[in-house]
Amino acid sequence: MPLALIPRKLGVNIDHVATLRQARGGIEPSVVEAALDAEQGGADSITVHLREDRRHIQDEDIFELLQKIYVPLNLEMSISPEILKIALKAKPEKACLVPEKRQELTTEGGLDLFSKKNLLARTVDDLSAKKVEVSLFIDPVEKQVREAAQLGAYAIEIHTGSYANAKETAKDKEIGRIRKAAQLGAELGLKVHAGHGLNYENIFPLLNIPEIVEFNIGHSIISRAVFVGLNKAVSEMKRLIRTK
Known about the structure:
The protein is an alpha/beta fold and 244 residues long. The chain is built from 10 helices and 8 strands.
């Protein structure tokens, strides 16, 4: 099937539901209820990031989500041996390997696939052996895309933060970088995903890149949900990505 005819998928990141819960240290709001509501709105997968500092998602959330949701769980994770051990026990359908810094508010950029290459390769191999589809969160840079293919990843997720934060005069350049990376990834046999900083307005130019088959979006959907509810916020975004 031509890429242009493949329906794009939407992964919904619910980390910030857990952020709100952790602010009071209680049990509300429930990340499981949020995930189920996102499913009702049309989410094709649920994304959560089990950070080493456990600032939002907790270990038990992973196992409960796997028991109760119906769509695939996409586990964002570092290559920390501690986190890998949990992932191998949980065996989510998908795992996205991301860089992680203790002081960052959110992920600030893509993985450097040439740093800690041996550990990264072992992590990809260990997860793949458990039938987990592994994606690598990378900047739209040719050498990173090629290395992702060499490492045997199932997919790449292109970091769109530079595009989302760019001034209008620089946005076309960033779109061009994303387009080239997506085209190369598809040529190398990788599934191409994209995410970070995407919202209900800036997503439109990326819909013209047919190689991107999945978008992973969190903050803007959760922010919209404050006003309209999560089900509707997800369904609105799902309609947008299906317009092309």
